[in-house]
Request: fold
Amino acid sequence: MALVKIKIDGRELEAEEGKTILQVAQENGIDIPTLCNHAALLPFGGCRMCVVQAGPGALKPACATPIAPNMEVVTDSSEINEARMMVLQLLFGERNHFCMVCESTGQCELQDLGYKLGLDHFEFFPYERRFPEDVTHPTILVDQNRCILCRRCVRACADLGGHWVLGVKNRGYESLIDIDMDAPFNDSSCTSCGLCVQVCPTGALVDKRASYLGRKDQAEMILSRCDRCPVGCGLEVYRRSNYILKIYGDWNCPTNGGVTCRLGRYVPLYDERPRLTAPKLKEAGVWTPTSAEKTAQWMADHLDDAEVVVEGSLSNEDLAALKGLFGERLFSLQQVAPPLPATAKLQDLADADTYLVAGVDLNKEFGTVGSLIKRRTIPGMAKLIVVDDGFNSLAASTDFVFSLKDLDSALAEARKGRKTVLIYSRLRDNIAEALKSESRFLTLFLPYESNTLGLAKAGIGSGSLTSRTVFFVGENLRDLKGWVRGATLIALTSFETDEVKAADLIVPIPAVFESEGSFISMDGELLRKERILEPGEGVRSVSAWVALVEAQRLQSVVAQRK
Reply:
């Protein structure tokens, strides 16, 4: 792209044609205050906090004004500062911005500008009216009294999330952020992705769980990857005193660009299942806490004729340790090999003109993939076809909805596309067989578990069990029913749920934020998940338990030889 010469505050600069004044200023370390602007969103120019002098005439918003050849820009003058101060006075006077009782104090962009511009009194009498609050959402609180109508939440919900839940109703002083045409937040079509909270510059939208527990600058921010599904979204996790305050999407991660879903952002934080913190052995039908050494010995005594069922959420390192201990006697609970050849990657969603989603509700199971699609289909840039027999929340965003018995009609519509991507997770055999002939479609396989490709690389597939001793390694024993009737069951798991009552020995392993290691995303990328929280004293990683079992077995062999 051609370079353009401009001057900002007397400095001669060169910048790419098409960039805005604000972008060029930020790239060259020139500070221009902003409020409605956000790097992940398209310029809006609504708040007028970033006004500058750029040529004759009225002041212009730097965030929405493109540079021009030989443009001369002034960012600091008495006229500019007077205009910015008036904007700030109007914002503080319009609603309740009494900072000392606000959850966002100390991390509020409006408050920061008050200090920066020297706001020491109110020109307009504040706190005159009470605006509504919405506390119905399980994780997000909405306080219209703190809102500055920057519309960041509205734009993020639509342009990044593709959800279009938020809007603005009324006009002028009466304007309010609207949720699905006046629906309570909990009764709306919100998918709980949390983007609105992440971009809000004030305390108008906050995470309930994090309220008054500390500011972001009082917490340690750890970059990690989400392993709740195989997309592998980048996360910013804020930790304070072995407690997670909040989780944001990582704006700089190329996989998700800051977009996340409720499974990665909220569900693990609200997990109330009782933790398993010490090994327990069932003796005469009664659970008895036992030592790590006795636990390892008990497992070692049951190794020779045992088979192992693993979840696809285990790290590559844990799978390798189990493989070294059990050899080929490892099986997956879920299907590992895709029923159709996987020929598409996430990046193929960016320029497709037709999406055929078969038998999966992306809003509920793969939220980031749903966002990548909906932000193109709702504005009409691409066509969305959903095929499903049950309720699918994507139906509100689609052009066509078909039942599985009408698959032929769906395929006929999908064939009209220039670039059609078939997206699926699990398919019945007859549906998979019908889709195999559509070789022109790109197919995006969404594995059910986060490290399904890691299982495949390790040579671990699904199968039937024949042994009288079964080891289960993972969080969720629900899907194990029917596999282990009459067998001795040893469960290495994180939670002491009703399902573990079927086991003879339960062994504690780290929960979601207590483990670390690598996994392979659906795009085949090797990703690293960091440990965020320290587990309890009796909790060991799968690899550590394997090492303890191997040491115990070695001791037994040595003792027998003596």
